[in-house]
Amino acid sequence: MRYAWDALRRRPGRSLLTSLGIGLATGLVVLLLSLSSGITASSTQLAQSSGVDLLATSADTSLSSSSFPPLTGAHRLESEMTQVDPNVATASPWLLGELVFANSSLYARSNSSVSGSGVPGGWAPTGSGIVGWIPGANAGIEVPTMVQGAGFPVPGDPHYAGGTYTGPSTHAIVLDQSLAQVLRVSIGSEVYVGATTPDGPAQLAGWFANATGFKVVGISGPFWLVPSALLAFTYLSELQSLLGGVATQSDTASIVLIHLHDGSQAGADQRRLAAAFPALTVFTLSDILGEIGNVVDLYRTFGTLVGAVGVAVALLFATTILLMSVDDRSREIAVLRALGFGPGWITRQILVEGLLLALFGLVVGAPLGYLGAIGMNAFLFRLLPPLPAGFTFVAFDGTVLAGTLLLVVAIGLAAGVLPAVRALRLPIAQELRAP
Description:
six-stranded mixed β-barrel, alpha+beta, elongated, 2 domains, 10 strands
């Protein structure tokens, strides 16, 4: 140890630069590992606290699908699933769609002049995701938290009216904070919803004539289950009507969220429901977490490739520096070997020298990686829409710390292998006779 330390002290500039190079690679690895760990942990925690034990979609649908084909008989599914499986506490059908939204200010400007000439530049309807569900029929399932307003005025789905779709429409809508901010609306404001996007100001009057007016009854916080920057919520039957024709007649939904009385045997409930409803595909929470893991693994693979490049560069740099160090001390090493210091001792000193450089790199790189991860977390929170409370992109757990330490040790040892071989192959007599 003393000999290796003395070798480093004799060349402080070279040792410092080598440790800095290893430190930068270490910092990059800390950043990538903490991102992977944070996203995995946050996604798992949100999924496990959601109350969703099973998820049903139309048959032959993958969780990785960008869209879900419609399933029919949505309103009847809760009672039917409860009859088939008494362990089903809640079966909540959700219809997911994309519609276009506009506020009352745009409506007034579009009607204040001919061909929309009074509409200011940049004013236009906004596309948004929308969810149709049955308020009050989500017991045990996490739903968006209202940050303003009372939310939906009545439970159930009055417009559905037992399948006749002749009941009163509430025209009530809840917007998430991002969409409310974009539309510049608040509780009690009127918003207009249509299925198409007008080509320009001249088409706005016609678009509003065919749009449906809704009253904002609530503004919600971010909702992790439907990761959209802009999101609205309304009654299932009213969204079915907006999407039109066949959707209303066939009572469609996109997914069914299922909460069980006892979720410990979700696999048995999955098989029971799948057998009773062949037109559906039923996924467990484990399936959902597995799909989340697959997505994270994809980014982890990319991050691993980036980190591997940094590690390879640091390793080559450290190996080159140690080879130079051996060459500089060739006569000294030959004298030590002539005095009886064996190959094992020489090899250990050079490997220790590599480990010391790597550990100094860890001292530099770990804080850099930590600060970089904190900065990346803050940047992503500013870049993305509001995220649920408790979500974080980075996490510093035992996996991150252990992985970083193992990497540093591996760099130090690997960097010393070739220099140690070089030291053992030095011709002792020739080195001693050299001037």
